[in-house]
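Document type: protein sequence-to-structure record

Subject area: structural biology

Format: plain text, a pair of labelled lines:
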Amino acid sequence: MENGDVFAKRFQLEMLMGSGGGGEVWKAYDNIAKVYCAIKIHLKNNSEQSAQEIVDEYTRVMHIHHDNLLTPSFVGIAEDNVPYLVMELCEGDLSNRDLTENEIWHLVHDVAAGLKRLNANKRKKKKNDSSIIEVPDPIIHQDIKPANILLRSNGMYAITDFGISRHRQSTLSQDYESTRDYKVDKRMTVDYAAPERFTTGSVPASDIWSLGAMLYELVEGRRPFAEGGNR
């Protein structure tokens, strides 16, 4: 992709904002809505099935609206099975940024509020009598790190990139039971990953561990487990 390209017959790409993991994030102009936005494009060779799986991963959080969660406004699949998502355009993430003490406290408050909303997520369930009720359905982000925290135009920090988030099982015992044959998720960023990510899999507290590791880096200027101490 290059500056000036029109993606999905709609988005004029203006500036590459970041890349990695087989994808790119661009500042783009939406020629239909007439607004600027951020668009994340997955450029790996995707089959129709794998592209749909990526879309499904992001779709699961589109219903959540919260000041401290930057969820996609649209997800789709362009030509050649290229999945993409459209988001609010933000100033940038926390990578390589020096924050003041007050800014760090602001960050802690906002990210914690976003994680609380994810943990309070609910889904609709049909009862035997066909009535609909809401039941707890917590979402674990699984990739809290500086690159996934953005500063919004309203001055609030927001969690983004829900590509490897997942719904937690209804009880802790079920969660561990279901991961007996657990394999390490190669997409996770190991320097911020909680110990259980390498053994039994994530629980909601795993995101809190990652938040702590991120804050350590922002304060001390280095990652607490960069030498593999959490493995």
Q: What stands out?
A: The helical segments are 48-59, 101-119, 172-177, 204-220. The chain has four helices and twelve strands. Residues 169-182 have pLDDT under 50 and may be disordered.
